Amino acid sequence: MYHNPEILESLKKVEATRQERFANKDNIARMTADEKDAILKAYHPDYKEENFVNLTVGVNKGDKVPHELAAYLQAHSRIKGKKIDLTKPAYDVDVLVIGGGGAGSSAAIEAHEAGANVMIVTKLRIGDANSMMAEGGIQAADKPNDSPAIHYIDVMGGGHFANKPELVHKLVTEAPDAIQWLNHLGVEFDKTEDGTMVTTHGGGTSRKRMHACKDYSGAEIMRTLRDEVLNRGIPVVEFTSAIELIKDTEGKIAGAVLMNMETEEIMVARAKCVVIATGGAGRMHYQNFPTSNHYGATADGLVLGYRAGAKLLYADTLQYHPTGAAFPEQILGALVTEKVRSLGAQLVNKNGVAYIHPLETRDVNASGIIRECSDRDNGVDTGTGKAVWLDTPMIEMIGGEGTIMKRIPAMHRMFAKYGIDIRKEPILVYPTLHYQNGGLEISPNGMTGIPNLFVAGEAVGGIHGRNRLMGNSLLDIIVFGRNAGKESAKAAKDVKLAKLTLSHVAKYEKELKEAGVDTKLVSPKLLPNYARNRKDI
Amino acid sequence: MEMVTIYLMGKKYEVPSNLTIMKAMEYAGYQLLRGCGCRNGFCGACTTIYRIKGETELKVCLACSTQVEDGMYIATLPYFPLVKQVYDIEKVKPTEQIMMQLYPEIYACIGCNACTKRCTQGLNVMQYIAYAQRGEFEKCAEESFDCVMCGCCSSGCPAGISHPQVAMLARRLTGKYIAPNCEHLDIRVEEIARGDFKATMEALMQKPLEELKELYNNREIEK
């Protein structure tokens, strides 16, 4: 239920044009390659040069990154000035997984399956992760009209051909196996009565290969993985962060310094291999965007890895999900799944015009909304900013009554809590900071340039190039999570650790000083600071 | 800005009326280390108990998606000790016996419906437990599908049932053993393992950028 007169006036226009838009829904033109390039350059936040700086320290010196990320990459270590006894580890394992989301849990399960002594450490609880919040689905080319090759072309094109081909190859060829693995673990995919997967399009896909579990896809996958981790008895140390990586005197990775989030007790975990599965960075609020991300999404893994000498790839590219909730204020920035558009909801401006194809890639659609809400002045004023409409009632015109409750119950619930029935009323949306396209660079075996340091999930850079397609993130956490688990368990068998050291941390501090970086910040950030009247901790 | 009076762990604060409980805690100065996850109703990390001044009923909710009200007495419950039994998913079978073995307490349900009343997702919790008792796992899975495992239901159960874990087991049994098998998936996995796509994929990876762009820009899009 909307009350604001300006919103109501625009809503009338949306309703007035709905029948006609419905009749013409298959005739909305797709943009040409040139049109897409132009709109991205003019409106996408990645192209706002003033919001980026070049790094002055570390292996990516000279490369541009968002200035908020630069500040945390080039900050002091949390262990600066602390005496840490590396000879008495509290934990001693083959594989240490940092992060308890989908990638970390998949890695832990596979490492355990391969016989490794594996442990998960996570600063919140296992399952408190962006994986849990992924709504729309997971891609895999498993239908007769589809193939890994067609999936490959979609991924490369969506990523503006910047993707690392060997990583995309792994992603698409191992996708069907990932779905089967999840299904065998008991994940309930949407199927027809004969077992055929119910699949839809995502923005930028050329085949309907989006598998889903209603609009709780990530939650269903994550809670199943968590249950499996617990069934296997894999130790999970919760409310404990990793604040620095440890190496040995030969330069191999050798564990991590841990911190109890509540007591701030420092502990050492010695490990033959480490998997960074720390996820994304939405809570860094790049360019002051709201975010759809989890509370813990603060780019910790990038900071840990970078300080240890691992290379970043495409850290300057972020994904702004076109449809973040813009109203009501209580859910500002919350994700409105792309599946809403897959099911037929159009993007409509304040005059009731469907100004763009709803399934352009995310970067293009986000740019389109920003254009409507700025230069074209076609945005609706919500009281906290401008927005466009996502015409949800159209879903039931296309799919029949009941489609919304069956296919996107979470979206219905999210808005119903604030008195908006998305079956009858459209919703207001604006781009929200959603995904870190870039991250730490890996080889197809999941390893960084630092021996025995693996990365999986959103902390990896290169799989998705400069823009990720819907449904390829849930896919990548499973494919590359499992991969990191298997490969780290294998690598751990031959590892003989030399003496443990934190000399790389001291070296980095020295470089900061030499580069003249003057900062009081410490990193990793660990959690955002939303407490009023408190300085950054 | 309209303000309301709330009591966080017994201490009085004035906060803007449009905030969620979670944001009100932050407004009051809390830096949350626990009891905060997805901040949008998907993860179940922020279970919270409250009572409205003058009322007797103790209510439960998720702090991230419940708006503050005047006179709200709020206590967070950032961890709820659910009972999670361990099992081997490869060895269990989707029969009534498995529930009797792992979660026998579900048969002690007295039908008070406290679980359903407390569900933050509005699910019919008592009904899905009834399905679990009868071994109707598919129905239990469907009825419980939107569960975020916050534990609110269990916090009021006189029989000591850990409802979310019962439902978790039912869903995994359904997904693995009861739901129809997907043949086109099995076929594709086999084709890939056999190397059917190997040559095409390798050729594709070698293609010059311009050729790949041509393929992308002219690809056929399924209607």
Write a compact overview of the structure shown.
The complex is a heterodimer of chains A (537) and B (223). With 537 residues, chain A is of the alpha/beta class.
Question: What is this structure's SSE topology?
Answer:
The complex is a heterodimer of chains A (537) and B (223).
Chain A: H1 5-23, H2 33-43, E1 52-54, E2 64-66, H3 67-73, E3 76-77, E4 91-98, H4 102-113, E5 118-121, H5 130-133, E6 138-139, H6 148-158, H7 165-173, H8 175-185, E7 199-200, E8 210-211, H9 217-231, E9 236-237, E10 240-248, E11 253-260, E12 266-276, H10 300-307, E13 312-313, E14 318-325, H11 339-342, E15 346-348, H12 362-373, E16 380-381, E17 386-391, H13 393-399, H14 403-407, H15 409-416, E18 427-436, E19 439-441, E20 453-455, E21 460-461, H16 472-492, E22 500-501, H17 503-514, E23 522-523
Parallel strand pairs in A: 3-23, 4-5, 4-12, 5-9, 12-20, 19-21
Antiparallel strand pairs in A: 1-2, 6-8, 7-8, 10-11, 10-22, 11-12, 13-19, 14-18, 15-17, 16-17, 17-18
Chain B: E1 3-8, E2 11-16, H1 21-27, E3 47-52, E4 59-62, E5 72-76, H2 96-102, H3 114-118, H4 125-133, H5 137-143, H6 152-155, H7 163-178, H8 183-194, H9 198-206, H10 209-217
Parallel strand pairs in B: 1-5
Antiparallel strand pairs in B: 1-2, 3-4, 3-5
Helix pairs in contact in B: 4-5, 4-7, 5-7
Task: Tell me what you see in this structure.
The complex is a heterodimer of chains A (537) and B (223). By secondary structure, chain A is α/β, with parallel strands linked by helices. Chain A has two domains: 5-30 and 321-433, Flavocytochrome C3, Chain A, domain 1, CATH 3.90.700; 91-317 and 437-501, FAD/NAD(P)-binding domain (3-Layer(bba) Sandwich). Helix content of chain A is 33%, strand content 18%. Chain A is built from 17 helices and 23 strands. Chain A has helices spanning 5-23, 33-43, 67-73, 102-113, 130-133, 148-158, 165-173, 175-185, 217-231, 300-307, 339-342, 362-373, 393-399, 403-407, 409-416, 472-492, 503-514; strands spanning 52-54, 64-66, 76-77, 91-98, 118-121, 138-139, 199-200, 210-211, 236-237, 240-248, 253-260, 266-276, 312-313, 318-325, 346-348, 380-381, 386-391, 427-436, 439-441, 453-455, 460-461, 500-501, 522-523. In chain A, strands 4, 5, 9, 10, 11, 12, 20 and 22 form an eight-stranded mixed β-sheet that branches. In chain A, strands 14, 15, 16, 17 and 18 form a five-stranded antiparallel β-sheet that branches. In chain A, α4 (102-113) runs parallel beside α9, α4 (102-113) packs parallel to α16 (472-492) and α6 (148-158) packs across α7. Chain A starts with a helix and ends in a 14-residue tail after the last strand. The mean pLDDT of chain A is 96. Chain B is of the alpha+beta class. Chain B has two domains: 3-76, Ubiquitin-like (UB roll) (Roll); 80-207, Fumarate Reductase Iron-sulfur Protein, Chain B, domain 2 (Orthogonal Bundle). Chain B is 38% helix and 12% strand. Chain B has helices at residues 21-27, 96-102, 114-118, 125-133, 137-143, 152-155, 163-178, 183-194, 198-206, 209-217; strands at 3-8, 11-16, 47-52, 59-62, 72-76. In chain B, strands 2-1-5-3-4 form a five-stranded mixed β-sheet, covered by helices on one side. In chain B, β1 (3-8) and β2 (11-16) form a beta hairpin. In chain B, α4 runs antiparallel to α5 (137-143), α4 (125-133) packs across α7 (163-178) and α5 (137-143) crosses α7.
